[in-house]
Amino acid sequence: MIHFRIIRPLVVLGLIVGLAGSALALDLSHATYFGGTRGDGGYTFPIVVAPDGDVYIAFRTDSSDIPLAGVPAQEAYAGRGDLVIARFNADLSELKASTYLGGTSEEGSWSSIDMALNGDALVVAFPSSSTNLPVTDGAFQSSRKGGFDLGVARLSLDLSTIQACTCLGGSEDEAFVSVAIAPTGDVVVAGSTLSRNFPRTDAYPAGLSGGRTHGDLFVSVLDAGLTTLKASRLLSGSGDDIAEALCIRADGEIVLAGWTRSTDLAAYDGSPDYRGGPYDGFVICLDPDLAISQMAYVGGSDWDFVYSMAVTPTQIAIAGHTASLDLPTSAGALSGSYAGTSGANEGDDVFVAVLDDSLNVVSSTYLGGEGWENATALASVPSGWAVAGQTNSSDFLGTAFTPEGDNQYATEGFLALLDAQLTDASVQQVGGDGIDCPASLALGTGGDLFLLMGTTSTDLSVTDGAWQAANAGGTLRMEAMVWSGDVWIGRFEP
Fold first, then answer.
1. Total domains, the chain
2. Where residue 354 sits, what CATH number does that domain have?
3. Which domain holds residue 387?
4. Which residue, 170, 159, 108, is CA-closest to 133?
5. What confidence tier does 409 reach under pLDDT thresholds 50, 70, 90?
6. What is the per-residue pLDDT across 151-190, written as a single tens digit (0 to 9) for each?
């Protein structure tokens, strides 16, 4: 069963179909814009919730007039694109702290920014082409080596101090970064590299393999102070390999998810078979010392991309987009068949799959309409799974969506709440008069859900007391397409 509602201009409208009494219903309780006048956001950028309920966000900006609060670690815009990190209270009415972070060139770029919070450690990772990042004394790598290296920085929770900062990379480009903090306090970073001399530790000396367009997959472990590379390896196949998501379980197990062209990705004893098509999704589990414990391909006979992941003590959920008509779906799945009509890159559907601890798919479903969809955010919630992304379908999940904007892909946002078995869902259209691109989700301290989105819409819902009531303007272009203008944060409650 699919329940549907629309969240549209300035207020939450009353169009609700089939939601009465549903355990999957979510209501927008607080919302605000945030940004400057030149363009803010990106494609994927993070939101995390602190134990006290405060909300941290990070994003790419071209704006030199971002609102600053508290005592910023970096007070001024420095280059052709900086990061912004901001801290809000839980009802999004107070900007408690904010800062720029960057050098005189470009931070963020097209590929992702990521952030992790654990105790008193707030760590952000991002691509950077700057030669003058605020690297700290004793950093593992004191300067950029290639076109785009990664920057990894640890900040104080009040965003007043850069406690540690290092570069990480080789002589070519690194991108598609994810970061997590291990139970030991170590910082784990994953992404893609085109550098044959990407830093590796002695236990894993193998060089670059076949990824010459997007690169090869890497995973690295730095100490909490970002001074020592404790472990680092490439997980190379004969094609391009991209890690889009990274999670660490309580026992220290590292879980990576993404997409690959390699039929021989991370070859090890027990390697599974490639599922088919030009790209497959994958999940790889590693021990804390980066030894592979298990791996699975996920996909059908066309292309399949995994963009987001959530883990529980016993399950791993992944989501992305697919053009495969034969993606295996589970009995009773919400949508057992592909809905797109225009072919790969034009009519892709979202897919969601849940794997057990042995990486067997236990439930899976399509989510889509006649147009193009992608799932950029996924979270574990008490009732099951929350997934957010973009669509340009007018019939997403068989409901009456009204896409707006002129981007080929990211015209309208959606937020879907699925039960644990992927058989029931509520879906909300989250968008306005422009392009709306959900970027990330985070579970709050009381079961509420936060959605972070890049948008050019000027009429999104905001609530009384919102810190910023209106879109400040600007557009952010990546790959010749507009993806956002300001960021928008929404808090949804059961």
1. 1
2. 2.130.10.10
3. 2-493
4. 108
5. low
6. 999 999 999 999 999 999 998 988 889 999 999 999 999 9
